[in-house]
Amino acid sequence: MLFMLIVKASKNSEAGKLPSPELMEAMTKYNEELVKAGVRVMAKGLHPSSNGIRISYPRPGEKPVVTEGPFTESKELTAGFILLDVNSREEAIEWAMRMPDPQGHGEGQIELRQVF
After folding, report:
1. What residues have CB less than 8 Å from 6, skipping those under 6 apart?
2. What backbone phi and psi angles, to 5 degrees, belong to 81?
3. Residue whose C-alpha is closest to residue 78's, from 21, 5, 2
4. Cα(116)–Cα(113) distance, rounded to whole angstroms?
5. What angle do CA 68, 74, 77 make, to 5 degrees?
6. pLDDT, tens digit, 9 for 90 and up, residues 5-54
7. Whole-structure pTM over 0.85, yes or no?
8. Which residues touch 116 (CB under 8 Å, ≥6 apart)?
């Protein structure tokens, strides 16, 4: 079963600030554990939304609308993801619960979603 851990953006990640060395070390250790367990398929961080483009479809049948970032609601943005291949939803939740606060400063939030 594939699950995606979606790391939500924060004011710091949108400002392009890297996590502290301690958090980077904790995330490296977490990722190494995922690899060692054979459940990590892929893990990547994303550039801030200031480098992003949003394409929306406000009118059916018409051309999409292109909006360049930055986008203002950081809580609605994604800063990165980890794709997990696990045996159950419960196992995905266990791995998600082991992730360190991905943003630090009490700003971290992750979302866990099963992939079709």
Report:
1. 78, 81, 110, 111, 112, 113
2. -155, 160
3. 5
4. 10
5. 70
6. 999 998 888 888 888 999 999 999 999 999 999 999 999 999 999 999 99
7. yes
8. none
